Fold these 2 entries.
Entry 1:
Amino acid sequence: MADAPRLRFAPSPTGYLHVGGARAALFNWLVARRTGGEFLLRIEDTDRERNRPELTDNILEAMRWLGLDWDGDVVYQADHLDEHAAGARSLLAAGDAYWCDCTPEDLEARRGKGASGYDGHCRDRAVAEGPTTALRFRAPDDGTTEFDDVIRGSVSFDNATIEDFVLLRSSGLPVFLLSNAMDDAAMGITHVVRGEDHVNGTPKYLLLRDALGLARPDVIAHLPLLVNESRKKLSKRRDSVAVGEFRERGFLPEAMMNHLALLGWGPKDDVEIRPMREIIERFRLGDVNPAPAFFDEKKLEHINAEYVRALSPEAFVDAVEPFLVRPERSLEPIRQLAPVLQQRVRVLPDAEPMVDFLHLDEPVRDQASWDKVMGKDPAVARAMLKSTIDAFAEVEWDADALHACLLRVGEEHGLKLGKAQAPVRVAVTGRSVGPPLFESLEVLGRTATLERLHAALDDLGPAGA
Ligand code: GLU
Ligand code: ZN
């Protein structure tokens, strides 16, 4: 039997963890968790100018939040630069690499401005190592480099199109490609699953592995691009892409993970919302579609709403708490109201305007609601509030009784329930829309309800004013 698969996520800490990275991590993680393999994390921190340590923290934090747990210690690529440089020198010794002393100006003069690629000028010049020389890989002149991509099928590159790329810069530092290929081998990675933007680097990666005598990985997969609603590649500037930003906007990690799983993959039964353990069971890399995947925020919101609904009242309160303006108040009323709130909350910040009347001394008055309900017909509002105050002083304090009571008060004034309850809702919650009124009143309690009805009546002023 083959050894257990070993997969990895290998982010560069040059930016926050974005949804594309998280999706790559997730797909690797899914394979590892289903097969009993390992999911490793390697921070590719060799770009000294662009790396910032706090970005590594951000990546780890976002992965923990999502629940993408990795196996073993985090591997830092920068700790292995000496091994990578030694690998490059072994290629030199074997004749698979050579020193090049061309300056950028030389290159540009030979190939013309704007063009790229290296013409092999120093291949047979036997340049000696010096303070400004770079080590280049001697890429094969002919033939092809091929691989089977589980998602894309067989992919083939003409070796003639592969330039003699740099392995060691004149500073002596290995390039990303070399470190990446050698680290994967050192970590025993069997499945290389990464973004489509790496397809063109893969032949170089494979040629290097061959030349270094390091067996190729068993499985290679390049995940589809993520695009926005205009079918444009998701961009940091245009789109919201950082995982941390979705957390701040009130998405649940479980909803985020479910949505990420659908970016390029769909279960055969088309059931999109399902527990992670079922996604783990069903996910197959070979079922991933190579076409660009639409990162649909509306769909994410819909999925999030479903996950919010499914929370226990306690879990709902825990999730919502960081988004409340006054979390120091008792959360018990919110817990009591949770089942009805959960039907209405799509993202966690939606809860605050639905519950602020419970934890503020006075409701936040929404002027438009007041004008619409109280201002339009103050006489009706006044009459309703007065009668309601009398009726509510006596009634049994639960949602059903309050409902029946207000229905009756409304009838006395010739009003249907909707019209009858509007002034009561605005008086008590400050707004004309919100969670179901009678449950809300039950939770708020008689004393506070009556106080607010009185206060609204005072604000309406005397009849005829
Ligand atoms: N460090 C690379 C990146 O962040 C990933 C390389 C890989 O997965 O092989 O794009
Ligand atoms: Zn050269």
Entry 2:
Amino acid sequence: MSDFAAHIDRELTRFHDELEAFLRIPSISTDPEHANDVRACADWVAEHLLAAGMGEAEVIETGGHPIVVGERIHSEEAPTVLVYGHYDVQPSEPDELWTSPPFEPEVRDGRLYARGSIDDKGQVHMHIKALEARLASGADVPVNLKLVIEGEEEVGSRHLAAFLHEHAERLACDAILVSDTGMFSPELPCITTGLRGIVYTEINVHGPWSDLHSGTYGGAVVNPANALAAILAGLRDEHGRATVPGYYDAVRPISPRERADLERLPMDEETLRAGVGAPALGGEAGFSALERLWYRPTLDVNGLLSGFTGEGSKTVLPSQAMAKVSMRLVPDQDPAQVVEAFEARVRELAPEGVTVEIKRSHGGAPWVADTEHPIFDAASAALESGFGAPPAYIREGGSIPIVQEFEKTFGAPALLIGFALPGCNMHAPDEWIDLGVYRKGIAALADLYGRLGEPLA
Ligand code: BES
Ligand code: ZN
């Protein structure tokens, strides 16, 4: 056993205690009432980076939540690796659906339950402990290491792109390492080679000045809820395809090799269905579930609001209706082009008698890795050393828009090694991290830190 692996085993209980302390800070970035907790969490990260042996760690202000930057220089000739992650979390609501309170971490059956346990505090903590394990066991880290841990990932990384440009010289690097994605099973580590992009919008449909009596006016005044329903229904056809003109024009077809790769993965659609409790799976006709998740774009309603939704009934013709609609994009769709075409289509579908207002929220382009880069071989070897099995190359249906921005800013490849297991309840009640994966993942990352020098030199 390597010295760093022995260190991890010996110190594991302390690692768990520390991670629990990290998870107790409710760093909910979207909620202004938690701004102080978010800040306290940034301080916590900086303090623990220093304790792990990161030469410098600084909490840097932005217009929003602060960004933690760490730096440990090995030598001027050594290549530089930048680790990116986030310390902010999603809100915990609905709290009553949690088995144990979201910010009171609890271990049950080898899993640690808490908001942020896997997305992304647990994975950030694995990097901090991988660094500690190498340094404390005298293994050293043969690369210059930089860390950027932000507090606004869950709200669209509002200040990060500008921050990267502003600090481009200080943060210059030869590779970007990100742990904020998933793996297939506890025995099968994974490297993520593609992410979907996203366009997020809000549609507001306005009708009469105010809510009206649905008997006095219903039938003669256009109902904004009906109008919105018609718009939403018209945005997809009976084959589950978006009806936005040109939506699929830039979508890369799935190559025979990609299809063959997908078929080799231990994927069972019935397990996916049962795991979410839906009566059946569905989606765009002619594609498997993995193809729909990783290689095909979506158009989904994320939220709906209109009229009377309380107990009982109220005969009302609502004055307005609202829907949040997002699209997950795949290569080579362009978010700017998609959002234009989407808006035009919504206006075309809107019946006369209402006005429609469309707001654009955050967005980001899809991303695919250049898997020919030698860093992927180093990552495979490191994951095999930690998990006893070589990794699978997978994609994710989710989005981390900032990955693109990092690659562009630094002209360096991104390597995505994530540890979230299927069913880990990211963004949902009872979020968990598997503590076996946590330990093996730290060992794999510690091994990777030792290997990164060569492929980048
Ligand atoms: N960790 C996720 C990204 C992710 C989701 C990776 C699912 C793998 C599987 C990240 O924190 C996240 O939730 N991203 C948002 C981005 C959005 C706010 C721009 C997402 O995908 O919804
Ligand atoms: Zn998330």
